[in-house]
Amino acid sequence: MTNLRTLYEQDFNAWVAQHVELLKGGRFHELDLEHLVEELRDRGRSERRELVNRLRVLLAHLLKWERQLSALSQRWAEFEGKNWRNTILEQRSAIAYLLQKGPGLKSYMEPALDEAYPQARDLAAKESDLPLETFPPDNPYRVADILDDRFFPAPR
Prior knowledge:
By secondary structure, the protein is mainly alpha-helical. The protein has a domain at 46-147. It is built from six helices and no strands. Helix 1 (2-10) crosses helix 2 and helix 3 (33-68) crosses helix 5. The longest helix is centred in the first third of the chain and has 36 residues, at 33-68. The model has no long low-confidence stretch (mean pLDDT 90).
C-alpha cells in the first residue's frame, strides 16, 4: 500500500494502471482505497462541473441570440449571429458527447440547468452590455430545446 501511495504522488497514470491490474486480478486488499475513493468522487464532480460550464456558455449565447440579435445593425447581426450560432452548436456537441460518455449525467441535467442559468444570465448581460433585467430571471428554455441542434429562439 505504501508503494501505491507514493506512486499516487509521483506518477498518477502509473497509479491508475496499477489499480486497473489489481482490480482485474481481484486483489482488492492491495488497493489504495483512500486515494481511489477520492479520485472517484472527484471524477463525478468534475463531469458535473463541465456540464454546468458548457450549459452556462450555451444558455448565455441563446439569451444573446434571442434578446440582442434583432437589435444589432445588419452588418453586426451577420457577424455576431454567425459567432453565436457556432458557439451554440459547439456547446451542444460537447454536451451531447458528455452525456454519451457519461449517461448518468442525464439525470443531472435539470439541476445543472438550475445552477448554470443565473451564471449564463449574468454572462449574457456582461458580454452584451445590456442590463441584467433584459434577460428573464428564470430559465425560459426546456432541456429538449437546449439540446436540439435546430432550435434557435426567435429574436425579440
